[in-house]
Amino acid sequence: MQTPFKRTLINLAVASACGIPWLPGHATEAQAGQAATPDVRQEGAGTTDAAAAPAAPAPAPAPAAASPANTVVVSGSRIAARGFTQPTPTTSLTAADFDRAAKPNMFESLTELPALQGSTGRTTNTFSTSSGIQGLSSLSLRGLGTIRTLTLLDGQRVVGANVTGVTDVSQFPQLLVKRVDVVTGGASASYGSDAVGGVVNFITDKRFTGFKANVAGGMTRYDDDKSGTLQAAWGKGFLDDRLHVTVSGEFTKQNGIDSPGFGEVGANGRTWYNNPALQESTRAMQAAGAPRYRSITHAQHIQYAKYGLITSGPLRGTAFGPGGTPYPFQYGTDCVGNFCIGGDRSGSVGAGTNLAMNFKRQVAYGRVSWNLDADNEIYVTGNWAQVKSVFSPNPGAAKQGNLSIRCDNAFLPPSVAAGCTAGYPGGTMQVGTANAQFPANINVHPTRTQRRAVVGANGKFALFGKDWSYDAYAEHGENTTVIHVRDITLNPRYNFAIDAVRDPATGRAVCRSAAARAAGCQPVNIFGEVPIDMAGWNYIAPRNGPMQHTESTQNVASVNVNGELAQGWAGPVSLAFGAEYRREKYAVHGDPYGAGASGESPYGPAYPQDPTLSATGDNWFAGNYHNGQGSFNVKEAYVEVNIPFLKSATLGEANLNLADREEKYSTAGHARAWKVGATWQTPVDGLRLRAVSSQDVRAPNLSELYAAMTVTNQAVNNAQGSSIQIQQRNVGNPNLKPETARNNSFGIVLSQPGWARNFNLSVDYFDIEVKNVISSLNPQQEVDLCYGGNQEVCSAVSIDGPAGTNYVLAQSFNFASLHTRGVDVEAAWRRNMRDFGLPGSVTLRGLASRTIHAISDPGVPGTTPSEGAGNMTGATPKWKALLTQSWDGLLDGKLGVALTERWISAGVFNNEYIECQANCPLPTAAHPTIFDNHMPGAVYIDFGGTYNFSKQVTAYVKIDNLADRDPVLVPQTNLSLALNPAIYDAVGRTYRAGVRMNF
Known about the structure:
This protein is mostly beta strands and 999 residues long. The chain folds into two domains: 4-258 and 356-392 and 446-484 and 550-590 and 627-700 and 736-776 and 811-998, Maltoporin, Chain A; 267-345 and 399-433 and 491-540, no CATH class. Helices cover 10% and strands 43% of the residues. It contains 15 helices and 47 strands.
C-alpha cells in the first residue's frame, strides 16, 4: 500500500521527469548554457557544506589512475549528480587536517570537533571494570550516545566491537583515509538504523599509488604516556593499471598514565589532584536551611583508612599502622556526613585511577581491484585489527565501614581485642579499609580483534540513454572481545579469609569456617601495614580472575544505484535507490565465578570447584560477566530523489531532496525513515539556504534485546505499601521496538561571495527529538507502573506469589525521550599572503556548537525531565569550539606553522540542582540544593609545525595543551578520581614529533 509520502515522492519524480515546470517561465539548465556549480569534490568527496577551508597541501603522491566510476558521492546523501547541493549539513576533514593535528590516533582528532560529544576512548571509563567499553574508541554526535551515531568505512557498515553494535575507530586503516565526512543530521533514510545523531564516514584512497609512511613518537611533560607510531602503505597498478593492489600496516603504542596509588597525590608529579568531594549535610542541617551538598577539597572519607579503621562503638577512630599498631585516626575538621576536610588522607583511592590507558593498536589492510573495463571494477578488501588496553580502575578494594569483625579475630592487636570484648556486647565491630596491603592494583586487560572481508563491484552503465552508477558489496565481519581482570578478589573468599581465629592445637591463624578451610581457605590479615601472606592473597585473588569472551558477527549484502531519470527544465532529476540485508549475532561467555554454573571455562583453564562461592555467580569484587547470546536480521530498501525545481537569473536555483527507507527487523518489526530537504541558491551572491526534516530510527541492539540475566535480592513496596522481598532479575527485553527521532535543521551558507572570495560561513540550527527511547527501569518503578495499569510492564512483574518466588525482570522499555537543539557555526578564510608582499598562505578555520537544550525524560510517573546542556558532569557543554590558524609556505615553501584553540564554556555541576548558601528550600530527589553550582570552562592551546626537507620527506612537531592547563575537578559523593575526560583534558601538555614520507 502506498503511503501519502510515497505517493508524493513518486508524483514529484514523474512530474519532473516529464518536464512539468514547478514554477513557469524559468529557463532550464540547457537553456542557461551552463551547469550549476557543484558543492562537492570528486571521487568520494563529501560536501564541505560548512565551508571547510582547504588545508595546506601535503607532498603529493604520484598521480593515481581515476576510479572507473569517478562519481560524486556526498556522505549526507546517496545522490551523485551534477549540480546537486545536499540539504544535510556535513563537515569534512581531509588527510591534511589530520596530518596537522598529528595525533597517534585519528579518533583523538575527531573527538575535538564541536559536534562530537560523549565519545568513548582511552581516557574515558578508566574507572570501570565491568562496563565492557573500556578502551573502545567510539564516536558520539550531539551527546546522544555512541549507539545513535553510525560510523562507516567507505560508506559500508563495520562489525561492532561491542555487544551494543558500536564500532571501534581504532580498528580502521587510518593511513589510507583521505577524508572523513561528519554528517551532523539524521541520515537513516540514506544509510539505515543508528544514524539518529548523524553519520561519520571514513573514506579511503582506493587507488593509492606509491609508498608512504609515518613514524612518530611523543610523551607528556611529566615523562609519561610515551607513545610511538609506525604506519606504512604501498599501492601499485599492474597490467596497464587494470589490476590495482594496495596494502597498509599500522602500529601505535601509548603507554598510558599509571596509578600513583593511595593518598592525595597526582600521577608523576601532577599537583592538581586535591581529593575533591561533595559533602552531604545531615537532614537536621537541611531543615535549618543549609544546602544538601557542598563542594570541598582535601576531603577525608571517615568510613575507611589505608590499613584499617574501626568505624563504630567505643573504639571508633582507632586505625592500624606499621605492624598492626593501633593509633588514633586523624579525621580532620568540618566533619559532615561521610567527609571531613584535611586529616589523614593517606588511604584515599581517587588518585589511583589511571588517567589514560596503556593502549596498543595493530592494523593490517589490503585491497585488490580489477577493472573489467574503463567503467567497472570488482574488488576485495581485507582487514585485520587488534586493539589492546591495560589500566587500573582503582587501588586496593575499599570497604567503607561494612566489615563485621569479631572480637576474637586472630590478627587484632591484644589491646584492641580486649577493648572490643569489653565494649561491644554483640562481639563484633565495624571496620573499613582501603586494603592497601594488597600487592597489586586491580588491572583490566580488554583485547578486541577484528577480522573483516568485503567483496564488491562498482561502476556505471547506460540505460535509456542515461548514465547510471552502481555500488554493490557483501561483507563478513567478526570481532572477538576478550576482557581479563587481574589482581582482584573474590568477595566470599575475602570474607572467609579475614574472619580468622587461632587454632587451639597449634596457635596458628586459620579461617574460622571449617567448610572454607576444607575448600582451601587461607587467612588474611587486614589490620595494619603488614605484608600480606601470599598464600592468603592467592586464595582471595586467584590468577584465573574475571573473564569475558564475546564473539560478534556481521553479514551484509548491499546494492546501491543512482543516476539521472531525466533532464528537467531546471536541471537533471536524479534518483538513487538500493536494498540491503544485514544479520548480526553475538555470544558472550563469562567465567564460572562471575557468571555462575560449574567450574568449567569454555575459553581457558578450568576454575576449581568451590562450594563456598555462589553457584549463580557475582562472586568477584567487580567484573562479574554473564553469559548471553542473540541475533537479528533486517531487510531494507530505500529510494532517494533530487528534483531541481527553480533556475532563474532573478530568483536563483533550488532543488528538493526526498528519501524514504523501509526496514523490517526480525525482532523489532517494521521501521521507517524518511527525509524531506531543500536547498536554495539565492540571487544574493554566494548565499544559499538549506533545510531538512527527517524521521530517523535506531533499532534495539543485541545487548538490549538479549542481555544475559543477573540476579540480586531487593525489596519493593506493593500497592498497599507493604515491603516484599523479590529477586531483581536483570535481563534483556526481546519485545523492544525501534526508537524514532524527528530531526529538523535549517541553515544559511555563505560561500565565497564576490566581496569576500576567500571566505566561507555556515550557520545551522538543529532540533532532534527522540521518542520511544530505550532505557532501563528499577524494580520499584516497574511495580508502580504495573499497578498503574501498564500491561507491558506487568508481564515483567510477579510479586503476588509465596515468599521466595517473587521477582521483577529489570528490563529496558521504550518509555523515555531525548530532545536536543542548538546551533552549529563553521567559518573559513584563506588568503595568499603574496598579495601583501609576504610568503605563503594563511588559513583560518573555526567550528563551534551551541547546545541550547539537551533534555532527557525518563517517561515514568514520579520522575521529571533533566536538562543536560551545560551540565559539566555529562557530555554536552553549552559551547564547544575548535579554532585553527595556520600559515603555510614559509621559508620558500618549506615551513608551516599552526595554532589551535579548543574552548569549552563554563557550566554547572548539574542543572537540576538549586544553588543556595543559606535559607535553602528542602531538597528533593529531583532537585537537591548545593552551595556552589558553578563549573568553570577551559581553553586549551595547541601549537604545531612542519618542515619539508623535500617533496617526499616532511618532519613535524606538535605540542598539545601548550599552557599545561590543569583539568577541572568534578567532585562526587565518593572519593573517585573526580574528572570528566569527556569534556576536560586530563593528560596535560604533550609533545610529539615525527617524519612523513611519500614516494
